[in-house]
Amino acid sequence: MIVSTAERRTAMRGFALTAALLSGLALAACQTTPVGQLANIDKAQGSSENISSLSSVINSNPRDPEAYNVRGSAYGRSGQYQAALKDFNTAIQLKPDFYQAYSNRALIYRFLGDQQTALADYNRAVQINPSYDAAYIGRGNLYRKAGQTQLAFNDYQKAIQLDTTDARAYNNRGLIYQQQGQHKFAIEDFSTAISLAPDASEPYNGRGLSYLATGDEQNAFSDFNMAIKLDKKNAEAWANQALVYERRGDKQRAAKSYREAIHLNPNYQPAKDGLARVS
């Protein structure tokens, strides 16, 4: 849902999270792993069998840039980043205006920690095709990770204005609204993300935090439970569920959920702090 400029101007400003306990959890919810065009490639497509099949296609037609782009995506999904780069480079050499390959290659550079080269590739992708939503979302993720929140917001906004059906644009813009304390808009964005990707855990976890910040504990609890149901390895959702139990005075269930969060992510400080409080 796109909100008007007037609505944004009248939005909540500087809304502090309702409890100090929430601050660490809300920040943690803003940390997501790099995702981009490769996220749309099914994990099975990164299998050795699929890569072998794609290699046969390339051997039959070594001048096909599309084949290199698809195999590069498969290599990326399997974690073979150098092989992925090689294929994206070949795809771009064969088709210099191949904006999808630029965007895909940018994501690989992000995984490898080369943020400047990734930014140059995203810039090139949107220069070639100003309507390519995936590149705006990928670049927005890069900006957000670098702490350039306004630039990230602008890119998510652009993707949404292009009528993207990619839930990440709404989810990640929602995270920015949440960070700014604009929880009404955050909830709207998370809800849209859920409608576009109902099997994704992250929007439920994000929306739950904003519900909790606005005092809607029951809806928050329902969202954290759904996030866990969709992804039992979501440490943040377990910790957030534990926080609700803690607020309700149920220290036993809170401790159990905090322990599960720590089991999944031993370095997750909000869970460790929470367990110390209820133990």
TrEMBL record:
InterPro entries: TPR-like_helical_dom_sf, TPR_2, TPR_rpt, Ycf3
Top-level taxon of origin: Bacteria
Matching SUPFAM superfamilies: TPR-like (SSF48452)
Keyword annotations from UniProtKB, A to Z: Repeat, Signal, TPR repeat
Stretches assigned to coiled coil: none
Pfam families per record: TPR_1, TPR_11, TPR_2, TPR_8
Signal peptide per UniProt: 1-28
Record-given protein name: Tetratricopeptide repeat protein
Organism: Ollibium composti
